Amino acid sequence: MQNTLFFFASKIIWALISPGSLLFLILLSGIVLLFLGKLSAAKIILGVGGIMMALVAFLPLGTWLVTPLETRFPTNPELPSRIHGIILLGGTVDPVTSYIWDQPQFGSSAERYHAFIQLAREHRRAKLVFTGGAGSLLDQEYKEADIARYFLHNMGISENRLEFERDSRNTYENAVNSKALVAPQPDENWILITSAGHMPRSVGIFCQLGWPVIPWPVDHQSEPGFQTRLTFELAGNLSSLNQHSREWIGLFAYFITGKTGSLLPGGCRS
Questions:
Q1: Hey, is 151 helix, strand or coil?
Q2: Residue 136 half-sphere exposure toward CB, CA atoms < 13 A
Q3: I need a labelling partner for 20 at 20 to 30 A (CA). Which of 140, 154, 181, 183 fits?
């Protein structure tokens, strides 16, 4: 019940406080004040909204937010000689549109699947775990794990090696359910694959559950060395800001609820 309340609360609160929603509410408030004849207040509100839009349009705010997350762990890290298991976090495939069109519909983080398949072929004795159900408040009957089973089978990954966890709705449940599914031993080496910006929160959860993992970050969004560029791309910058501010809010929420041991996790032994 507690996990369900957390899941619903996180979805509802984010819908209200995301940068896109806040910008919309500010501009809407200014328009309402105009119609009510509150010109001074309307000018202030619309002015604030206009400045915010300009900042979002010209500055790579989302990139600035995600850079410290993506640089938290090294890419392509050196691995132990024996890998006991590989975990792929869901969140790449849209289950609903995949069912509608009867083929996997990937989002922008398809690199997760590519890395999973590559590492699975390099470490043929490793157990393979896909974890991901449905992260939507609605459409809980459509599970990403079912799409992943179909896709990975077509990619030549033997189903005898695969375990699928299909009931999780968020990253915390990914970790809890996966641990219950495979019962990892303390001396085993497990690789965790997810987007680089999502890796600190993911690692923090696994560590808090007593399951040390080796981060294998993919799907990088930042551009170190090119972060002072001015562009005019309101839609793209707002999308990036929404995505990466959500990760920071998630880090804060998971930390204050005890699901991670620090605000910006850096590994189980850091």
A1: helix
A2: 12
A3: 140
Q: Which residue has the tokens 């009931």?
A: 167
Question: Both 192 and 240 in a single domain?
Answer: no
The domain tally of the chain equals 2
Residue 65: what are its φ and ψ, rounded to 5°?
-70, -40
pLDDT in tens, 239-260: 999 999 999 999 999 999 999 9
98 neighbors 105 (Cβ within 8 angstroms) = yes
Strands lying side by side in the sheet with 190-195: 162-165, 127-131, 85-89, 190-195, 214-218
What type of residue sits at position 23?
Answer: L
**Residue among 65, 87, 102, 77 at smallest CA distance from 221:** 65
Q: Do 57 and 145 lie in a common domain?
A: no
Q: Is residue 257, in this structure, part of any structural domain at all?
A: no
Burial of residue 253 (number of CB atoms within 10 Å: 0-12, 13-18, 19+): middle
Does 81 share its domain with 191? Answer: yes
| 88 beta partners | 130, 193
* pLDDT tens column, 25-83: 999 999 999 999 999 999 999 999 999 999 999 999 999 999 999 999 999 999 999 99
Could you give the 3-state DSSP secondary structure of residue 138? coil
Give CA separation, 181 vs 43, 66, 79, 177, 216, in Å.
57, 31, 24, 6, 21
Task: Identify the CA nearest to 120 among candidates 156, 164, 174.
Answer: 156
What is the helix (H) or strand (E) element at residue 219, kind and residue range? none
Question: Quick one: 142 and 109 in the same domain?
Answer: yes
Residue ranges making up the domain that contains 17: 2-68+230-251
